[in-house]
Amino acid sequence: MYQALYRKYRPLTFEDVVGQEHIVKTLRAQIGAGSISHAYLFCGTRGTGKTTCAKILARAVNCAMPHEGDPCNECPQCLGILNESTMDVVEIDAATNTGVGDVRELREELIYAPASGKYRVYIIDEVHMLSTAAFNALLKTLEEPPSHVIFVLATTEIHKIPATILSRCQRFDFKRLSPELIAGRLEYVAEQEGFKLERDAALLLARLADGALRDGLSLLDRCRDGNEPVTLQRVEQIVGVMGGEQLMGAVRMAWNRDAAGLLRFYRDARERYAGPAQLFGDLCALLRDLLICSVTEEPEKLIEGDAKELKEKIALSRELPTACIVRMMRTLQDGIYELGRTAEKSLSAEMTLISLCREELGEDIASLSARIARLERGIPPMAAAASAPAAEPKKEAAPAPSQAPKAKEPAAEISQGEECPFWEPMKECLPDMGRANLLGFLLDIKPSLAGDRLILSSEQSICIEFLNKPENKAALQEAASRAAGRGILVELRQSEPAMAEDDPMNELLNL
Prior knowledge:
- The chain is α/β, with parallel strands linked by helices.
- The protein is built from 23 helices and 8 strands.
- The chain has helices spanning about 5-10, 20-35, 50-60, 75-80, 100-110, 130-145, 165, 180-195, 200-210, 215-225, 230-240, 245-255, 260-270, 275-295, 305-320, 320-340, 345-355, 365-375, 385, 425-430, 460-465, 470-485, 505-510; strands at about 40-45, 90-95, 120-125, 150-155, 170-175, 445-450, 455-460, 490-495.
- It folds into 4 domains: about 5-175, Rossmann fold, CATH 3.40.50.300; about 180-240, Helicase, Ruva Protein, domain 3, CATH 1.10.8.60; about 245-375, Zinc Finger, Delta Prime, domain 3 (Up-down Bundle); about 415-495, 2-Layer Sandwich (GMP Synthetase, Chain A, domain 3).
């Protein structure tokens, strides 16, 4: 029968364990010195070597000819443990043996001496699944077991282990493996199996493994096709993901407000991804790397991947404002949350992608900051504005006597900037006061001066609400008073959107 790669290449000695040198060194030293603990607790994420190290430890303490803390794997004790013919090593799955009765049966077995080795080793996997009563029944035995018994507990959720259990064990934390270590191991396995694994494919498999070597070997097993080379294109096709170049193209579409292109990208991505949540997760991971490239000087220390891809990410991060990257990440995270709540997942995904291209659809601070960042870059708010020819200004027709517009109240009239002579000097005072953050919110403001009152109006409600906060309003009044040379009161108003001249609602309003 075919044996899976992660089982076939499971390490048999501590020397073969990858990426856990801090644990291997301590265990080998304890075995060599004979200072073996009665209880160990191995914790860490899946596929990092907890059960593997527990089995190596069980053979090493019973080995007749250990070598520098490693089992020989040739003596009768080691061979008996490897082929599971000995009774000295017992593996227990706590997920299916959770009750206090199971622990009582275990305690009754502890009195029996080892059959052939020096110790009876009990490996309890997923120990956090034990019930509270089972943990309590295990306490005394775990603290003072018979001299010939060793407990090895393994768990992926250390926060569920009671403190009374933690204090009775030697705890070892297994760390996640880096993509470079996983990729190197995958290339070694491929070489031993007689097929070629391209470096780019190995790195992609390593990133998809997410720190778990077992997951990486399982993915390699899926992508293997006899002795044919495993290429990057094959991994993307079999696993169902898109390469970094295609994902960066999607981010560029969102920045360029190309909603049609982004929807076409999603249509093609549906054939590869199991669901839109996985696609959004990959886009979030890319945006995370872009954010790091944007805010740090040495992103290579924080981003995993080859030099070529990192160079492309750095170049893309220079094109996008940081505020826009943050807004895209939050939009995708909100989209992932909504996907878990709706039955129309495709429709929800398309709405999220359209929101990526349109900052004006969001009313939160992140969307407003992204719009301001786009304006600061000198990019028009609509993509078509740059390419569309400027429309000729329409000549205003003189209103008929019978249809003369009603006179507005002087206080509600909104004038242009020149009617407030100290508007520009006032804005220059804000950075000196340490309030340069208010300048972005003044871009859409229309000032109007009425005596000692400075009326600031805008169609954006979120802008008015932010500036109307007591600390912000006080800063505006102080800046206005400095620029005007006299006391100025600031009043904030939200104005109604201006109607186009050919709007049919004008005829109804004039009736």
